[in-house]
């Protein structure tokens, strides 16, 4: 099963995203900030880090950079509502996907599905 680590500081958004991804068949671990995500990256294998960019203590870009060091096989997807931050994220992590708010939950699931579609065809994760 594909495991997703979700870092989102907004509780309502975190719950909606977690439920939508779980309903789509993904195993989701959700945390409320980047610093809370680090121990999970150190201890477990996650196929995707789905992170908001603007968060307290550690922003999503710094979290993604740390994830690249701790778990280089983990894919990165940013979610953000700030256009200027989107540009910064794209420069810092050029291989990451970026989903701009507002988006429909179906769009998020479709993006994640697309990200792992080739793995499902070949049977790898």
Walk me through the structure.
The chain contains five helices and five strands, in the order βαβαβαβαβα. The chain is an alpha/beta fold. A five-stranded parallel beta sheet has the order 2-1-3-4-5, with helices on both faces. Helix 2 (34-43) packs parallel to helix 3 (60-70). The model has no long low-confidence stretch (mean pLDDT 87).
Q: What's a quick, concise take on this entry?
A:
By secondary structure, this protein is α/β, with parallel strands linked by helices.
Chain-wise SSE layout:
Blueprint: E1 3-7, H1 11-23, E2 27-31, H2 34-43, E3 48-52, H3 60-70, E4 75-80, H4 83-92, E5 97-100, H5 105-122
Parallel strand pairs: 1-2, 1-3, 3-4, 4-5
Helix pairs in contact: 1-5, 2-3
What distance lies between the first and last C-alpha atoms, to the nearest angstrom? Answer: 8 Å
Determine the fraction of residues in helical runs and give it as a percent range: 40-55%
Q: Tally the helices: what do you get?
A: 5
Q: Summarize model confidence as the mean pLDDT.
A: 87
How many extended strands?
Answer: 5
Protein structure class: alpha/beta
Shape: globular
Question: Strand arrangement, largest sheet?
Answer: 2-1-3-4-5
State the major sheet.
Answer: 5 strands, parallel
Q: Please identify the oligomeric state.
A: single chain
| Beta-strand proportion | 15-25%
- Which runs of at least 5 residues are low in confidence (pLDDT < 50)? none
Annotation keywords:
125 residues; alpha/beta; five-stranded parallel β-sheet; 5 helices; 5 strands
